[in-house]
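Supplementary Note 3. Input sequence used for the single-chain structure prediction.
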Amino acid sequence: MKKYKCKIYLTALFCFVSFSGWAQEDSLAIYMLSAVRDNPAVIAEYHSYKSLAIACIGSGQLNDPEVNIGVFPKAMQHADSKQILTVSVMQMFPWFGTLKAGRQMQEWKAEAAYQKFREDGIALVYDVQQQWYDILATQEQIKSVQRNLKILKDIEKTALYQYKTAYGAKNARLSDQLRLQAEEARLYEQIESLQDKEKLQRQQFNLLMHRSADSSLSFPDTMKLREMPIVDWPQLERDNPRLQQLLAQGKMYDAQADMVKGQGRPMIGIGLEYMLNGRVDMPVMPSMNGMDMLMPMLKVTLPIYRKKTEAGIKSARLMKESTVFDYQRQQDMLRSQYLSIEQQATDAKREILLYNKEMNLLDRTLQLMMTEYANGTTSLTDILQTSRENIDYALKQFETQAKYNILVAEYEKLASKYDYVQK
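The predicted structure, written as discrete structure tokens, is reproduced below.
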């Protein structure tokens, strides 16, 4: 059980991030910490777990003893005394092991809530990384369009120079000027659209960390590809919160079956009764006249109605079987997800190599075409077409780079790598 680790996990996490080599101010690590620390959904799950953990303290305890007091307004006359008052105390004891099973059931229920808390925290860290790489991709796309806009402006300068100096081609060069201005206007609009998209992404990123939407953020200038971790299936299954939650639920149902079985056995009550007696005038036995009485008591329940007990045990065992099948299904889902991530990552890396090659060729082509345009051996139409292809490949390249890094983050989520509760 890890019920007390959560009480200090935020402090431990802060120390882990602060002293790790790759953590720095306004880095992805700090943003992940901020989200886990401040996100209302995760905090709600933590308090839900904490309430169940505290409830375990009171489980497995004996029921309160019963006290009965009987007062006779008019004393009841007996042969050697008259009865004035009776006081009895009775403590019931369930069958052996019933209290322990009840306490274990509550503890495993709290453990399942703890694993749910872990699962939500790990999922939140993945969401932070996903939005982080989406923002980086948008930043790179903006810079790519701006680079192509600069190329068009250089070509516009060339066209303007030739319009002023070339003889007999004034009309053509003037049309080139207008076409270039139209293309530049389209790129300006594309840049503004991407900037609006980035602004929205940044606002959503802040809200994910439960901060003001317009809080300042810091991002690196470039987006680098990450390394895909090596899979370790035994460790992955041991760390996966969903699998651990199902295991905890299964043990909870085992304890529930034991508790119901114990409740179907006799309960034993041990008590003591005290009788306050008064003296009488003509007792049969003078030596016992007015003597108070103390009487031990024993009480045993008779559990003869067995249907409710048998139904409770059967229900708990069926729920246990359900968790076993859910565990196997979750194992299959984990393997399927990993195979899907592996295949998608392979495709993404292949696409990135293709886009890099295409962009390098198109960059060289544009440089040559600028020279050829100045010499009058290529048309503006070809240059504009090549520029658009270059922009399209750049947009796809950075989208694919972000997709690949998000796939790495998804695998880390699968492997519970950023499980800050465990730090």
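The radius of gyration is 39 Å. The CA atoms of residues 327 and 333 lie 10 Å apart.
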